[in-house]
Amino acid sequence: MKTITDFQHKKILVLGLAKSGVSAALLLHKLGAFVTVNDRKPLSENPEAQHLLEQGIKVICGSHPIELLDEGFEVIVKNPGIPYHNPLIAGAITNGLPVITEVELAYLISEAPFIGITGTNGKTTTTTLIHEMFKADEKKAVLAGNIGEVASDVVQTAGAEDHVVIELSSFQLLGIDKFRPHIAIITNLYDAHLDYHGTKEEYAKAKLNITKNQTEEDFLIVNADQDHLMKMTETTKAVIVPFSTKETKETGACVQNGDIVFRGEKIMSLAEVALPGAHNLENILAAVCAVKLAGITNQAIKEVLTAFSGVKHRTQFVREYNGRKFYNDSKATNTLATKSALAAFNGPTILLAGGLDRGNGFDDLIPYMKNVKALVTFGETAEKLAETAGRAGVGIVVKTENMQQAVQSAYDSSSEGDIILLSPACASWDQYKTFEQRGDIFIEAVHTLK
């Protein structure tokens, strides 16, 4: 890691813990800053804060007191999940106090170049593919960000010969200043997280931060099938490398005559790819662009793409049981992701869906439900989804209380040759702490079917 003095002897407030907050606080302490940590969870229920206290770091727990703005802090390192309308953050910005996220810290100390991946959907799959391709070519790369370890942890041991492959959310990208990935990817851009960003324009602006510090020596990989995204990225200084599932792209990646091609060079036949779905083809082409720019061999790319069948909770194949194939797409927390999942399968499908009610409807799923022979619902949106299924002409609708019941009901409603797909179209928080927990319960239920 680089030895920097940017934070030495400066008063820094780390706002919000979780894994990234703990890592940021410990790193800043190591860099010689006077660190104060503030977290809403009471100290008695907060083992992370207790650990930091034992390391000699000042800790304030139980609330976010606005009086902290009077303490003379020079920088705030904010947990990405804390919104900018939080009074403490809003007050800091009004006073001209820099507010950054932990990703910025990681970049400042890293000796390794960054490959940064953002977008509305497909980030995790694209990030995982890139990392797997590096490993297949026996090249050094570390996973960081929303997938893998906290970035400011992994970069401390990464050398100049490594690559930091990092998945980046819009929340993280709002808090950058100098962060500059050598290779950046925007997988796609749809409306999302408007409850956090306020408007789709602000959400898009946050995503585009990934390229704001790039220069002519860097690369920006962009989904060329989205005209609005291509228009938004016209001002970048980086070299644009497009990918497209629909058109030939001489300067990027595309499909030609049934082959995956990068800058005119055949990489492999599309028929050899194990990962299903048109949306995953976009992720594959984005990943191919990144690794080819980084010098990864075609053989390594082919090795991964012929074996890789999905990231856990993202159209993940779970098992085949009595002629039914089960897929876990618990990460589908909005209708856009569920539409992509439904489009990936041509055969009769049993859809498991439901979860947190955010006030939206589900009618945009109707054109994608042509192959859905049964819908099994659960959670707060069960009734809404049932009504949507009725309008879509779905013959069987079953309402259940939880995931275990949903899996059994889906199996009971199925026949040999059916796809049984968990793709909830909703967040999990009405019943489960995370989409991962929801997906794990699905997997367990599938493996214990009667």
TrEMBL record:
Superkingdom, according to UniProt?
A: Bacteria
Q: Which reaction does it catalyse?
A: UDP-N-acetyl-alpha-D-muramoyl-L-alanine + D-glutamate + ATP = UDP-N-acetyl-alpha-D-muramoyl-L-alanyl-D-glutamate + ADP + phosphate + H(+)
Query: By its UniProt entry, which InterPro entries does this protein fall under?
Result: Mur-like_cat_sf, Mur_ligase_C, Mur_ligase_C_dom_sf, Mur_ligase_cen, MurD
**A Pfam family this protein belongs to?**
Mur_ligase_M
This protein's pathway reads: Cell wall biogenesis; peptidoglycan biosynthesis
Q: What is its main location?
A: cytoplasm
Query: What positions does the entry give for ATP binding?
Result: 119-125
Record key words, sorted: ATP-binding, Cell cycle, Cell division, Cell shape, Cell wall biogenesis/degradation, Cytoplasm, Ligase, Nucleotide-binding, Peptidoglycan synthesis
Annotated Mur ligase central domain ranges read: 117-291
**EC number(s)?**
6.3.2.9
User: Gene3D superfamilies per the record?
Assistant: Mur ligase, C-terminal domain (3.90.190.20), Mur-like, catalytic domain (3.40.1190.10), NAD(P)-binding Rossmann-like Domain (3.40.50.720)
Q: Does this entry carry the keyword Ligase? A: yes
Where in the numbering of this chain does the Mur ligase C-terminal domain appear?
Answer: 313-426
List locations, semicolon-separated: Cytoplasm
Q: Does the keyword Iron-sulfur apply?
A: no
List GO molecular-function terms, semicolon-separated: UDP-N-acetylmuramoylalanine-D-glutamate ligase activity
The record's top EC class is: ligase
Output the NCBIfam families linked to this UniProt entry.
Answer: murD
Q: What does this protein do?
A: Cell wall formation. Catalyzes the addition of glutamate to the nucleotide precursor UDP-N-acetylmuramoyl-L-alanine (UMA).
Xref: PANTHER family: UDP-N-ACETYLMURAMOYLALANINE--D-GLUTAMATE LIGASE
Which family is it part of? Belongs to the MurCDEF family.
- Protein name, per record: UDP-N-acetylmuramoylalanine--D-glutamate ligase
**What species was this sequence derived from?**
Bacillus lumedeiriae
